Amino acid sequence: MPYTIKNNPSPAPNLQALLEETMHQCDHLARRDHDPVGRVWEYTDAEDREIVALFASGLAYGQVRVLREAISEALAPLGDRPAHTLRQLSPEELGALWPAFTYRMTRGEDLADLACAIARTLQREGSLRALYLAGAAGRREVATPTDHLEAASHFVRALRARRMRPELARGFRYLLPDPADGSTCKRLHLFFRWMSRGPDGIDLGLWPELRPGALVMPLDTHTSRLCRYLGLLTRKTLDARAALEVSQALARFDAKDPLKYDFALCHLGIGRRCIHRRSEEHCPGCPIEAACTL
């Protein structure tokens, strides 16, 4: 039976309380094992974590079990100390690390492009964090979505320019999308959420200069449906404007940390709590049912 959305463009008055309840009901640490960020927490060094996070977020599409396997396969050639490995190997050696890697849109050559781009960044700026801040126009902190999107686009374009292959391949563009192109850039915004928020057991809080209030919602098909059910999204097109609309709606509840609800909302879908249709089995136990317009 197809789902329909009632005409309710405004959030329910009790939505904030229900979102707080959803967040508290979510077993974050247990769910982390079913989330790509779980792989990032397996590393202890901050420099390694941000590198692993960029690989993991870039591959965070498709079924969770399969994408986690793809992330593990992608990270294996970098060993226990990815930053050290990237500093030691030449571009030619990096290009040979993933000869048989294939995961949907992503091929081994795309991972080699990303590895080479990160390696050159480590040589020039010293870290991915430093590269991001280089695009922040000298600001001590990035506090608004506008400033963040400008810095994020600079970050992506710099990495793309430092790739291994002479041409900018479609698979590498997909792995590392540019916010200036107008798409939701869900996986890139997921990376920035991990870097900015926390540390709280999910997000890692490695980039304190990137304030949580500047973040943009990592919006995909599943979370956009949930946000429409809750009156957080009216835009029909799934694009950058939709992601900003949800971010601004959540900021009305917590301007300093609007994305604190993202992990719990996302895992309503990942954990099959929400199946995007009315169900006597699923809906009565859902923490946001009272505000849902489905």
Automatic annotation (TrEMBL):
Naturally occurring in which organism (per UniProt): Lujinxingia litoralis
GO MF annotation list: catalytic activity
Short name of any one Pfam family annotated for the protein: DUF2400
InterPro entries registered for this protein in UniProt: CHP02757, DNA_glycosylase, HhH_base_excis_C
Top-level taxonomic group: Bacteria
Gene3D superfamilies: Helix-hairpin-Helix base-excision DNA repair enzymes (C-terminal) (1.10.1670.10)
Full protein name: TIGR02757 family protein
SUPFAM superfamilies: DNA-glycosylase (SSF48150)
NCBIfam families per record: TIGR02757 family protein
GO biological process, one term: DNA repair
